[in-house]
């Protein structure tokens, strides 16, 4: 007889626990139902607006889009999901590469700008513009025959310029010009007696001898050929 109340008490406790569990489940279900109702209430205006916008956009392109074509495009996209995924991976890789190379590109651009600025400061661009102007003058001044002759003799011209730019020749020409400039500032005595006095100067005689030698060389180059 003493075990009956104890067993009854245990069953009542178990029943109470089950009722409490069911009550908690009912409260959770009601809370979830209210949350879904609130979500539907919040989403419904947005969905209606999106639906109206979709209808408006479809009305604008309905002449150009067929429903069958649209469905075929959707099926094709679904079939190529893996390809699209790989393409997105490649795009991400390219984006990461661009992020990596970005600083290097900026440095190269700054270096190029600095180099161009340095060339402009040194006058390379001005020389190029003047060179283009000279070339334009040559093209408009010389005819085809003259340009052909210039091309045929370009080696001779280059060798002549090379010989004229030898250090000893440039030094001689410069010294001669400086001395001549100084002498031109002095008064000239062109009388016969004055010329005779100058002939007594060994430097004058040496200059005349060199001049005559050069004139002889020029004359020998200009001698007419004997038939």
Main attributes of the structure:
87% helix; rod-shaped; 227 residues; mainly alpha; 9 helices
Structure overview:
With 227 residues, the chain is mostly helical. Among the domains are: 12-65; 147-184, no CATH class. Helices cover 87% and strands 0% of the residues. The chain contains 9 helices and no strands. It has helices at residues 3-61, 67-79, 81-122, 124-141, 144-152, 154-164, 167-184, 192-199, 202-221. 0% of the residues are buried. The model has no long low-confidence stretch (mean pLDDT 78).
Unreliable stretches covering 5 or more consecutive residues:
none
What's the number of helices?
9
Order of helices and strands: HHHHHHHHH
* Rg over CA atoms: 52 Å
Strand content: under 5%
- Please state the average pLDDT score: 78
State the assembly state of the protein chains: single chain
Give the % helix: over 70%
Major beta-sheet overview: none
Structural class: mainly alpha
N-end to C-end Cα span: 165 Å
Q: Using DSSP, what is the number of strands?
A: 0
Tell me, briefly, the overall form. Answer: rod-shaped
Give the SSE map:
Blueprint: H1 3-61, H2 67-79, H3 81-122, H4 124-141, H5 144-152, H6 154-164, H7 167-184, H8 192-199, H9 202-221
Summed up, what is this model?
The chain has 227 residues and is mainly alpha-helical. Among the domains are: 12-65; 147-184, no CATH class. Helix content is 87%, strand content 0%.
